[in-house]
Amino acid sequence: LWGSGGRGDLGLMRQLGANAVRLYGNDPRLNHTTFLYEAQTQGLDVIVGISDFPYIQGADSCVNTNFNCYDQIKKQYLQNLQSGFLVKGST
User: Fold this and answer.
1) In Å, what is the CA distance from 56 to each residue of 5, 40, 76?
2) Among residues 88, 91, 90, 56, which one has the least CA distance to residue 73?
């Protein structure tokens, strides 16, 4: 939907004056590289959100770890980086 093969949502957002896209939650198990490249092509920054599912609904939720969510957050953040949110060779 968001790319040139779909409705071109990101291009339309850019034409309307947007300079960034905020993701409120994403599945870190999926690869987001194509989306990120399209956003870059359109000149849009991406503000990455982290889903709250692992913290409050997942099998290993923070409730089960005495509300110490460090391990859950670290795992999901790493998955985001591995699924396209880390550009090799950049800082």
Assistant:
1) 36, 32, 13
2) 56
The encoded tokens of residue 20 equal 């960034």
Q: What is the pLDDT of residues 42-85, one digit of tens each?
A: 999 988 877 777 777 777 788 888 888 888 888 888 888 887 77
- The amino acid occupying position 45 is D
User: What is the length of the chain?
Assistant: 91
The residue type of 6 is G
Q: What is the 3-state secondary structure (H, E, C) of 4-54?
A: CCCCCHHHHHHHCCCCEEECCCCCCCCCCHHHHHHHHHCCCEEECCCCCHH
User: Which 8-state DSSP code applies to residue 58?
Assistant: S
Q: Is the pTM above the cut of 0.85?
A: no
Burial of residue 72, with CB atoms counted within 10 A of its CB: 0-12 exposed, 13-18 middle, 19 or more buried: buried
